[in-house]
Amino acid sequence: MKNLMQKIILISILHFCSCLNAQGKIIPSNNPDQQLQKLGITLPEPSSPVANYVKYVQSGNLLYLSGTGPLKSDGTLIKGKLGADLTIEQGYEAARITAINLIATLKSATGGDLNKVTRIVKVLGMVNATPDFNDAPKVINGFSDLVVEIFGERGRHARSAIGVASLPSGIAVEIELIVEVE
Predict the structure, then answer these.
(1) Which of 6, 7, 32, 51 is the most buried (most CB within 10 A)?
(2) How many Å apart are CA 75 and CA 153, to the nearest integer?
(3) Count H helices, E strands: the chain?
(4) For residues 20 and 16, what is the distance between their CA atoms, to the nearest angstrom?
């Protein structure tokens, strides 16, 4: 019985050590790149800023990602106003596409290694909406659901989802992020 317990302890220690990176930090059980591949998502090249700003700024272990919109792979933007031109489902898809674009920027900011993301900290989701549209959170769920699916628990975040009178170029949603990295 003693030998069996020693073997179990040794296997447990070896398993734990195999979950550590070179810095001794625990490697997340889900790999974002593998999750993207599993979902059939190919990240686009991050777009360039359209004015005098940068796509992200790092301060300490925090990355601040600029507001990004739903740029589709064909180069077109999802435009329209929720409550008038677009359904909640179409808004949800716009938020999902925006998540893919932000993850592409995040991958660039982390030198190509999404495993450096330790936490999606805060999300601000803005929805181009009519004054009586009150389902902005349902739209921004398109972002949140995908980020959690890709990053697991590290993707769970604090969030604000608000309706606004207009967004640049008439886009349906704009989302900005604060992300903690190692």
Answers:
(1) 32
(2) 31
(3) 4, 5
(4) 7
Tokens at 141, concatenated: 């769920």
Q: Give the chain's length.
A: 182
| Distance of alpha carbon 94 from alpha carbon 134, whole angstroms | 17
> Which amino acid type is present at position 113?
D
H/E stretch holding 3 reads helix 2-18
Residue 101: what are its φ and ψ, rounded to 5°? -65, -40
Distance of alpha carbon 50 from alpha carbon 47, whole angstroms: 9
Cα–Cα distance measured from residue 28 to residue 117, given in angstroms and rounded to the nearest whole number:
10
Q: What letter represents residue 6's amino acid? A: Q
Give 44 or 9, the one with higher predicted confidence: 44
pTM of the model: 0.84
Domains (ranges, CATH) in the chain?
Answer: 30-181 (3.30.1330.40)
